[in-house]
Amino acid sequence: MKIGRTQIMSDPFSSDFDADLALEQSSDGSCGGDHYGSIDDFEKALVTEQPEIAQLVCEMDKPAGTKSKKQQKRDRVVRLKEMTTGGRKLFEPRAQPSVRQDVCETMHDEWSTGPMSLLYRALKHSHRIEVHIRALNRIDRIARGYVTAFDRHMNVVLRDVDEVALPGRKETRSFGRRKFEEDHLPPGMLWQPGGDWPRPLGECRVVLQRYLPCSMIKGDTIVLFRLLQPKIASWSY
């Protein structure tokens, strides 16, 4: 295909380029037919000649309206339902509602088993109990009395207490040196020789006893509880 001389001179990349000739040959932007003098004239003609296209343009240019809170909530519920797995509910409680118990039911649940049940029966029926109390590494005292009060930490208050003690060998040797100090103690704190220890003892061991109107025993020193009621004397914790 041959390229004319005029086209070569109108090509800006050609060495024979002629700017005046290129301007004369270039298009003036007109459609060759009907043309509009302004954008308003074009829009009026579009509405008259192509109403469907004009309607679509208006819908596309229309800004999106803000949805109401109720509609937003409805849309959110629909989205959540689509994400909900089978067998699950849309709205589920975070935790199961707890059944509140009154004081009597709580006490019955806590004191119906274990050592608490033994203390509860002893307090309710005025049974005498036996409490084995420890020292650092052995049982050195046994108290027998009636339960007046106790708590969940095994702290116990007894009344009419008969207490026996088995001093260690060092305590036995220093017993005479502390005799003067013990003579000045209150009567309820004085120990007297005598009493029965439930386990066999050597010939040189000394058992002490005393009576206390009331005694409070800490739970962290208690090793064993035992009921002294004849029918249930074997029950111990």
TrEMBL record:
What name appears for this protein in its UniProt entry? Sm domain-containing protein
| Gene3D superfamilies assigned | 2.30.30.100
What are the GO MF terms of this UniProt record?
Answer: U7 snRNA binding
Q: Which organism is it from?
A: Haemonchus contortus (Barber pole worm)
PANTHER family of this UniProt entry?
U7 SNRNA-ASSOCIATED SM-LIKE PROTEIN LSM11
Record domain Sm: where: 121-227
Biological process GO annotation list?
mRNA 3'-end processing by stem-loop binding and cleavage
Coiled-coil positions are none
Matching InterPro entries, A to Z? Lsm11, LSM_dom_sf, Sm_dom_euk/arc
The family database entries (Pfam families) matched by this protein are listed as: LSM (PF01423)
Q: Name one GO cellular component term.
A: U7 snRNP
